[in-house]
Amino acid sequence: MADSDSEDDYMKMTFDDAPKDPQHETSLQRAARKRKEGEARSRQKSKAECEAEAELVREASLATALPETNKGFKMMAKFGFKQGDTLGKSETAQKEPIQIEIKEGRAGIGVESEKKRKYQEMWDQARREAKRAKEEEGNFFEERRQQQKERKAERDLDNAQRTAERLAEKEAEAENNGGAKEQHLTDINVLWRSRARHQIEHEHDRRLKNELTNSLASRLPTLAQEDNENDNDSKTALGHDVTPFYSTLENELEDEDPELAEFEALPVSERLQKILTFLRETYKYCLYCGHVYEGATMEGCPGVTEEDHD
Q1: N or C: which end of the chain has fewer CB within 10 A?
Q2: Is residue 278 in some structural domain?
Protein backbone atom coordinates (compact mmCIF):
# COMPACT_ATOMS: atom_id res chain seq x y z
CA MET A 1 0.00 0.00 0.00
CA ALA A 2 2.87 2.28 0.80
CA ASP A 3 4.47 1.44 -2.49
CA SER A 4 1.29 2.40 -4.29
CA ASP A 5 1.12 5.73 -2.41
CA SER A 6 4.64 6.58 -3.37
CA GLU A 7 3.84 6.12 -6.99
CA ASP A 8 2.43 9.03 -8.98
CA ASP A 9 -1.31 9.18 -9.26
CA TYR A 10 -2.13 8.86 -12.90
CA MET A 11 -5.32 10.95 -12.33
CA LYS A 12 -3.17 13.94 -11.42
CA MET A 13 -0.84 13.62 -14.32
CA THR A 14 -0.94 16.38 -16.93
CA PHE A 15 0.01 16.10 -20.53
CA ASP A 16 1.12 19.21 -22.38
CA ASP A 17 0.09 18.37 -25.92
CA ALA A 18 -0.48 22.00 -26.96
CA PRO A 19 1.95 23.05 -29.61
CA LYS A 20 4.49 25.56 -28.42
CA ASP A 21 5.22 28.75 -30.25
CA PRO A 22 8.35 28.50 -32.29
CA GLN A 23 11.33 30.23 -30.80
CA HIS A 24 12.25 31.73 -34.15
CA GLU A 25 9.96 33.69 -36.51
CA THR A 26 9.34 31.96 -39.75
CA SER A 27 9.72 33.64 -43.11
CA LEU A 28 5.94 33.67 -43.64
CA GLN A 29 5.32 35.25 -40.26
CA ARG A 30 8.04 37.82 -40.87
CA ALA A 31 6.55 38.71 -44.27
CA ALA A 32 3.07 39.09 -42.79
CA ARG A 33 4.36 41.26 -39.94
CA LYS A 34 6.28 43.53 -42.25
CA ARG A 35 3.30 43.81 -44.54
CA LYS A 36 1.07 44.93 -41.63
CA GLU A 37 3.68 47.40 -40.39
CA GLY A 38 4.06 48.82 -43.88
CA GLU A 39 0.32 49.22 -44.25
CA ALA A 40 0.12 50.94 -40.88
CA ARG A 41 2.94 53.35 -41.79
CA SER A 42 1.56 54.07 -45.22
CA ARG A 43 -2.01 54.71 -44.01
CA GLN A 44 -2.65 58.41 -43.65
CA LYS A 45 -4.21 59.27 -40.31
CA SER A 46 -7.35 61.32 -40.17
CA LYS A 47 -7.49 64.78 -38.65
CA ALA A 48 -9.40 63.50 -35.63
CA GLU A 49 -6.81 60.78 -34.99
CA CYS A 50 -3.94 63.29 -35.24
CA GLU A 51 -5.70 65.64 -32.83
CA ALA A 52 -6.36 62.79 -30.42
CA GLU A 53 -2.73 61.70 -30.48
CA ALA A 54 -1.56 65.28 -29.99
CA GLU A 55 -3.95 65.65 -27.06
CA LEU A 56 -2.63 62.47 -25.45
CA VAL A 57 0.97 63.61 -25.89
CA ARG A 58 0.15 67.03 -24.43
CA GLU A 59 -1.71 65.58 -21.44
CA ALA A 60 1.14 63.17 -20.80
CA SER A 61 3.65 66.01 -20.90
CA LEU A 62 1.61 68.15 -18.53
CA ALA A 63 1.12 65.25 -16.15
CA THR A 64 4.86 64.59 -15.97
CA ALA A 65 6.68 66.53 -13.27
CA LEU A 66 9.80 68.46 -14.14
CA PRO A 67 12.74 66.11 -13.51
CA GLU A 68 15.49 67.18 -11.15
CA THR A 69 18.04 66.73 -13.91
CA ASN A 70 16.38 69.52 -15.90
CA LYS A 71 18.46 72.64 -16.18
CA GLY A 72 15.55 74.89 -15.33
CA PHE A 73 14.73 72.82 -12.24
CA LYS A 74 18.37 73.09 -11.10
CA MET A 75 18.24 76.88 -11.47
CA MET A 76 15.04 77.09 -9.38
CA ALA A 77 16.47 74.70 -6.79
CA LYS A 78 19.26 77.19 -6.11
CA PHE A 79 16.59 79.66 -4.95
CA GLY A 80 15.04 77.09 -2.58
CA PHE A 81 12.44 75.52 -4.84
CA LYS A 82 11.45 71.98 -4.06
CA GLN A 83 9.33 69.49 -5.94
CA GLY A 84 5.64 70.15 -5.15
CA ASP A 85 6.16 73.68 -3.78
CA THR A 86 4.68 76.90 -5.17
CA LEU A 87 6.67 79.59 -6.86
CA GLY A 88 7.34 82.58 -4.63
CA LYS A 89 6.76 83.11 -0.92
CA SER A 90 2.96 82.83 -1.01
CA GLU A 91 1.73 79.43 0.14
CA THR A 92 -1.66 79.92 -1.55
CA ALA A 93 -0.17 80.29 -5.01
CA GLN A 94 -1.03 77.86 -7.76
CA LYS A 95 1.02 74.68 -7.71
CA GLU A 96 -0.24 73.19 -10.93
CA PRO A 97 0.69 74.76 -14.28
CA ILE A 98 -1.88 76.80 -16.15
CA GLN A 99 -3.97 74.61 -18.41
CA ILE A 100 -3.48 75.08 -22.12
CA GLU A 101 -6.53 76.01 -24.15
CA ILE A 102 -6.13 75.22 -27.80
CA LYS A 103 -7.49 78.01 -29.96
CA GLU A 104 -9.55 76.67 -32.83
CA GLY A 105 -10.44 78.62 -35.89
CA ARG A 106 -8.84 81.65 -37.45
CA ALA A 107 -10.69 84.36 -35.56
CA GLY A 108 -8.78 86.92 -33.57
CA ILE A 109 -8.16 86.86 -29.84
CA GLY A 110 -11.23 87.95 -27.86
CA VAL A 111 -13.78 86.94 -30.47
CA GLU A 112 -15.10 84.08 -28.35
CA SER A 113 -15.64 86.30 -25.34
CA GLU A 114 -17.42 88.84 -27.56
CA LYS A 115 -19.66 86.09 -28.92
CA LYS A 116 -20.43 84.93 -25.39
CA ARG A 117 -21.28 88.50 -24.40
CA LYS A 118 -23.63 88.90 -27.37
CA TYR A 119 -25.29 85.56 -26.69
CA GLN A 120 -25.74 86.54 -23.05
CA GLU A 121 -27.33 89.83 -24.07
CA MET A 122 -29.66 87.98 -26.44
CA TRP A 123 -30.67 85.56 -23.69
CA ASP A 124 -31.23 88.42 -21.24
CA GLN A 125 -33.33 90.29 -23.80
CA ALA A 126 -35.37 87.16 -24.52
CA ARG A 127 -35.96 86.60 -20.80
CA ARG A 128 -37.05 90.21 -20.33
CA GLU A 129 -39.44 90.02 -23.28
CA ALA A 130 -40.88 86.73 -22.03
CA LYS A 131 -41.36 88.22 -18.57
CA ARG A 132 -42.98 91.36 -20.00
CA ALA A 133 -45.26 89.26 -22.23
CA LYS A 134 -46.28 87.19 -19.23
CA GLU A 135 -47.02 90.31 -17.20
CA GLU A 136 -48.99 91.85 -20.06
CA GLU A 137 -50.92 88.62 -20.48
CA GLY A 138 -51.70 88.60 -16.77
CA ASN A 139 -52.75 92.26 -16.91
CA PHE A 140 -54.92 91.56 -19.95
CA PHE A 141 -56.75 88.70 -18.26
CA GLU A 142 -57.09 90.76 -15.09
CA GLU A 143 -58.59 93.64 -17.08
CA ARG A 144 -60.97 91.25 -18.82
CA ARG A 145 -62.08 89.83 -15.49
CA GLN A 146 -62.55 93.33 -14.10
CA GLN A 147 -64.58 94.40 -17.15
CA GLN A 148 -66.79 91.33 -16.91
CA LYS A 149 -67.28 91.99 -13.21
CA GLU A 150 -68.28 95.61 -13.88
CA ARG A 151 -70.72 94.60 -16.64
CA LYS A 152 -72.29 92.06 -14.32
CA ALA A 153 -72.60 94.72 -11.61
CA GLU A 154 -74.27 97.09 -14.11
CA ARG A 155 -76.81 94.42 -15.04
CA ASP A 156 -77.50 93.73 -11.38
CA LEU A 157 -77.87 97.47 -10.74
CA ASP A 158 -80.42 97.82 -13.53
CA ASN A 159 -82.39 94.84 -12.22
CA ALA A 160 -82.29 96.22 -8.68
CA GLN A 161 -83.45 99.68 -9.81
CA ARG A 162 -86.29 98.20 -11.85
CA THR A 163 -87.35 96.04 -8.91
CA ALA A 164 -87.23 98.96 -6.47
CA GLU A 165 -89.23 101.14 -8.86
CA ARG A 166 -91.88 98.46 -9.28
CA LEU A 167 -92.18 97.87 -5.53
CA ALA A 168 -92.43 101.62 -4.88
CA GLU A 169 -95.17 101.98 -7.51
CA LYS A 170 -97.13 99.10 -5.99
CA GLU A 171 -96.81 100.67 -2.56
CA ALA A 172 -98.00 104.06 -3.92
CA GLU A 173 -100.98 102.45 -5.66
CA ALA A 174 -101.95 100.71 -2.44
CA GLU A 175 -101.83 103.98 -0.55
CA ASN A 176 -103.94 105.78 -3.22
CA ASN A 177 -106.48 102.96 -3.49
CA GLY A 178 -105.25 101.80 -6.90
CA GLY A 179 -104.78 105.25 -8.39
CA ALA A 180 -101.50 106.40 -9.79
CA LYS A 181 -100.04 109.51 -8.20
CA GLU A 182 -98.13 111.89 -10.45
CA GLN A 183 -94.70 112.65 -9.05
CA HIS A 184 -92.21 115.36 -9.80
CA LEU A 185 -88.86 114.07 -11.03
CA THR A 186 -87.05 115.29 -7.94
CA ASP A 187 -89.57 113.53 -5.70
CA ILE A 188 -88.51 110.13 -7.02
CA ASN A 189 -85.96 108.28 -4.94
CA VAL A 190 -82.47 109.00 -6.21
CA LEU A 191 -81.67 105.27 -6.21
CA TRP A 192 -83.81 104.76 -9.31
CA ARG A 193 -84.41 108.34 -10.42
CA SER A 194 -82.11 107.85 -13.40
CA ARG A 195 -84.61 105.36 -14.88
CA ALA A 196 -87.39 107.96 -14.74
CA ARG A 197 -85.11 110.58 -16.27
CA HIS A 198 -84.12 108.21 -19.06
CA GLN A 199 -87.79 107.55 -19.79
CA ILE A 200 -88.50 111.27 -20.01
CA GLU A 201 -85.52 111.78 -22.30
CA HIS A 202 -86.64 108.87 -24.47
CA GLU A 203 -90.16 110.30 -24.71
CA HIS A 204 -88.70 113.72 -25.49
CA ASP A 205 -86.63 112.28 -28.34
CA ARG A 206 -89.62 110.36 -29.67
CA ARG A 207 -91.87 113.44 -29.73
CA LEU A 208 -89.10 115.49 -31.24
CA LYS A 209 -88.68 112.97 -34.00
CA ASN A 210 -92.44 112.95 -34.65
CA GLU A 211 -92.58 116.72 -34.86
CA LEU A 212 -89.60 116.75 -37.19
CA THR A 213 -91.37 114.27 -39.43
CA ASN A 214 -94.81 115.87 -39.33
CA SER A 215 -93.79 119.51 -39.57
CA LEU A 216 -92.55 119.76 -43.13
CA ALA A 217 -94.96 122.61 -43.78
CA SER A 218 -93.43 124.69 -41.01
CA ARG A 219 -90.03 124.46 -42.69
CA LEU A 220 -91.25 125.61 -46.12
CA PRO A 221 -90.78 129.26 -47.06
CA THR A 222 -93.84 131.44 -46.42
CA LEU A 223 -95.00 132.93 -49.73
CA ALA A 224 -98.57 133.91 -48.93
CA GLN A 225 -99.47 136.96 -46.91
CA GLU A 226 -100.69 136.50 -43.39
CA ASP A 227 -104.46 136.32 -43.06
CA ASN A 228 -105.70 137.31 -39.66
CA GLU A 229 -109.09 135.70 -40.31
CA ASN A 230 -107.63 132.17 -40.58
CA ASP A 231 -107.20 130.18 -37.43
CA ASN A 232 -103.94 128.66 -36.30
CA ASP A 233 -104.62 125.28 -37.90
CA SER A 234 -105.29 126.91 -41.26
CA LYS A 235 -102.13 128.96 -40.99
CA THR A 236 -100.10 125.87 -40.23
CA ALA A 237 -101.68 123.99 -43.14
CA LEU A 238 -100.91 126.87 -45.51
CA GLY A 239 -97.39 127.23 -44.15
CA HIS A 240 -98.16 130.60 -42.58
CA ASP A 241 -97.26 129.51 -39.04
CA VAL A 242 -93.74 130.70 -38.42
CA THR A 243 -93.63 129.49 -34.83
CA PRO A 244 -90.70 127.03 -34.42
CA PHE A 245 -91.84 123.43 -34.37
CA TYR A 246 -89.69 122.64 -31.34
CA SER A 247 -91.26 125.25 -29.10
CA THR A 248 -93.70 122.73 -27.62
CA LEU A 249 -90.79 120.67 -26.24
CA GLU A 250 -88.85 123.50 -24.68
CA ASN A 251 -88.27 123.37 -20.94
CA GLU A 252 -89.86 119.91 -20.76
CA LEU A 253 -86.81 118.32 -19.13
CA GLU A 254 -85.90 119.23 -15.63
CA ASP A 255 -82.91 121.38 -14.87
CA GLU A 256 -79.66 119.89 -13.65
CA ASP A 257 -80.09 117.44 -10.78
CA PRO A 258 -77.05 117.69 -8.45
CA GLU A 259 -78.28 114.89 -6.21
CA LEU A 260 -78.63 112.48 -9.15
CA ALA A 261 -75.30 113.58 -10.62
CA GLU A 262 -73.59 112.89 -7.29
CA PHE A 263 -75.19 109.45 -7.09
CA GLU A 264 -74.31 108.58 -10.70
CA ALA A 265 -70.68 109.58 -10.04
CA LEU A 266 -70.31 106.76 -7.51
CA PRO A 267 -68.80 103.44 -8.65
CA VAL A 268 -71.22 100.83 -9.89
CA SER A 269 -70.47 98.49 -7.00
CA GLU A 270 -71.22 101.20 -4.43
CA ARG A 271 -74.50 102.18 -6.11
CA LEU A 272 -75.49 98.52 -6.26
CA GLN A 273 -74.66 98.08 -2.58
CA LYS A 274 -76.85 101.07 -1.66
CA ILE A 275 -79.91 99.88 -3.56
CA LEU A 276 -79.52 96.28 -2.32
CA THR A 277 -79.44 97.56 1.23
CA PHE A 278 -82.50 99.73 0.53
CA LEU A 279 -84.47 96.77 -0.82
CA ARG A 280 -83.61 94.66 2.20
CA GLU A 281 -84.36 97.34 4.76
CA THR A 282 -87.53 98.75 3.14
CA TYR A 283 -89.19 95.80 1.44
CA LYS A 284 -87.38 92.80 3.00
CA TYR A 285 -86.52 91.77 -0.54
CA CYS A 286 -83.35 90.01 -1.70
CA LEU A 287 -82.47 90.47 -5.35
CA TYR A 288 -80.42 87.28 -5.61
CA CYS A 289 -82.97 85.15 -3.74
CA GLY A 290 -85.85 86.76 -5.67
CA HIS A 291 -88.04 86.51 -2.62
CA VAL A 292 -89.76 88.87 -0.19
CA TYR A 293 -89.17 87.73 3.39
CA GLU A 294 -91.61 88.23 6.21
CA GLY A 295 -89.28 88.84 9.15
CA ALA A 296 -86.94 91.77 9.53
CA THR A 297 -83.99 89.40 9.98
CA MET A 298 -84.73 87.79 6.59
CA GLU A 299 -83.96 84.36 7.95
CA GLY A 300 -82.78 82.00 5.23
CA CYS A 301 -81.03 84.63 3.10
CA PRO A 302 -77.28 83.95 3.02
CA GLY A 303 -76.24 87.58 2.59
CA VAL A 304 -76.41 90.86 0.71
CA THR A 305 -73.99 90.28 -2.17
CA GLU A 306 -74.03 87.69 -4.94
CA GLU A 307 -70.85 86.10 -3.57
CA ASP A 308 -72.75 85.22 -0.42
CA HIS A 309 -75.25 83.26 -2.51
CA ASP A 310 -72.63 81.12 -4.31
Answers
A1: N
A2: yes
> Which tens digit of pLDDT belongs to each residue from 5-19?
555 566 665 655 555
The average confidence (pLDDT) of the chain is 77
d(CA 156, CA 272): 7
**SS3 for 66?**
coil
How many angstroms separate the CA atoms of 303 and 289, rounded? 10
Q: How many helices (H) and strands (E) does the chain have?
A: 9, 2
How crowded is residue 243: how many other Cβ atoms within 10 Å of its Cβ? 11
Alpha-carbon span 51 to 45, nearest angstrom? 10
Q: Give tens-digit pLDDT for 102-135.
A: 777 777 777 778 888 888 899 888 888 888 888 8
Q: What is the pTM of this model?
A: 0.46
CA distance linking residue 203 with residue 156, whole number of Å: 25
Range of the domain at 257: 130-175+188-214+239-282
Query: Nearest-5° angle of CA 75, CA 81, CA 87?
Result: 105
Does residue 94 lie within any of the structural domains? Answer: no
**CA distances from residue 308 to 103, 153, 263, 267, 302 in whole angstroms, order as listed:** 72, 15, 25, 20, 6
CB 193 within 8 A of CB 184: no
Q: How far apart are CA 193 and CA 168, in angstroms?
A: 12
- Count up the domains in the chain and report the number: 1
**Is residue 286 within 8 Å of 293, Cβ to Cβ?**
yes
59 part of a folded domain: no
DSSP for 123-184, please give it: HHHHHHHHHHHHHHHHHHHHHHHHHHHHHHHHHHHHHHHHHHHHHHHHHHHHHTTTPPPP--
Q: How far apart are CA 208 and CA 214, in angstroms?
A: 10
